[in-house]
């Protein structure tokens, strides 16, 4: 049994200011990778540039990362900044800018002429130093090695082969205040999925379960707030962020399994946001799992049974039953993903994948 999370995590108000000297130690020139609006709305970009200026770090801002970032965007940033002598990369925003930032840090280190080399076998997991500053509360990318990028050649999303753990995660839950409520909900359902998929995982250990169970407990504290997001308090925001970091730590060890595997097809083809797409499959995944373990999960987050859990997810994510054609495509794509299938703790075949994918609609 082992457990390893190499990222140094700070979780506090004014995190960027408090740790500016450690940030400055990564080098003289940095590339900030972010989205168009979020990091300006929540003040994190202003906080970051102020800290960099105070420490005389030259910075460039690449703010063209879209949701579910593409290889083309990663390549665009690489081509624009490859000759700027960048010494470290900061991913600022939700999972999309953080994941794009990891992939860009790999490209800048290796100076790849072909962006598809991000998926090559025998990756050496080297990159420029990468720092993460999350502004959503779901992906946990600030503590995982994964970077999920949209790959049009295979018409879905896929983690790059390189495992890039941030050197440092600077987590300030106040950046969540400006999150649109539906983004906040989708994001929190993603965190829940990370916790559940890790706890119900073939790779789970006593160490990862300690984190997953504590994350589920914290998630249970905020579950009712997601039904009334206008009433969120400062403490709720802190718990939302905490549950997300726990979820990231848990999947850093266990990886994600079937709900994530199914979800990529929905996001690629129907543009359904990541957390909302993953959440659609949680009910089916739990329905076929060991019911003793499922009971523990439900007890931890405060549901009496799976039906209550399903009704809750329907309310917060506003699900409608998906068409058979998209579910069949998701099954076809997932059945090729040997790694995700191997993380499922119970044996699966195509028939069971179909039952899981269809469970939400079948059990109305
Ligand atoms: P996201 O795609 O990063 O952001 C969603 C939206 O929220 C964007 O419009 C963004 O605006 C906005 N936003 C972000 N923070 C904001 C804030 N504080 N205030 C206002 N608006 C804000 O969403 P996400 O759910 O965090 O990330 C999803 C991606 O992460 C997917 O690609 C998924 O596959 C990946 N993921 C990665 C891991 C991992 O371990 N690496 C795990 C799970 C999921 P801007 O575009 O302007 O920034
Ligand atoms: Zn996820």
Task: Write the topology of this structure.
Blueprint: E1 8-11, H1 15-18, H2 20-24, E2 29-34, H3 38-41, H4 44-54, E3 58-62, H5 71-81, E4 88-93, H6 95-110, E5 130-134, E6 148-151, E7 156-159, E8 168-171, H7 181-199, H8 206-222, H9 234-254, H10 258-270, H11 274-279, H12 282-287, H13 291-301, H14 306-317, H15 324-334, H16 338-343, H17 350-362
Parallel strand pairs: 1-8, 2-3, 2-4, 4-5, 5-8
Antiparallel strand pairs: 6-7
Helix pairs in contact: 5-6, 7-8, 7-9, 8-9, 10-15, 15-17
The protein binds NADP nicotinamide-adenine-dinucleotide phosphate (NAP) and zinc ion.
The site of zinc ion (ZN) has 7 residues, from helix 7 and helix 11.
Short description:
The chain is built from 17 helices and eight strands.
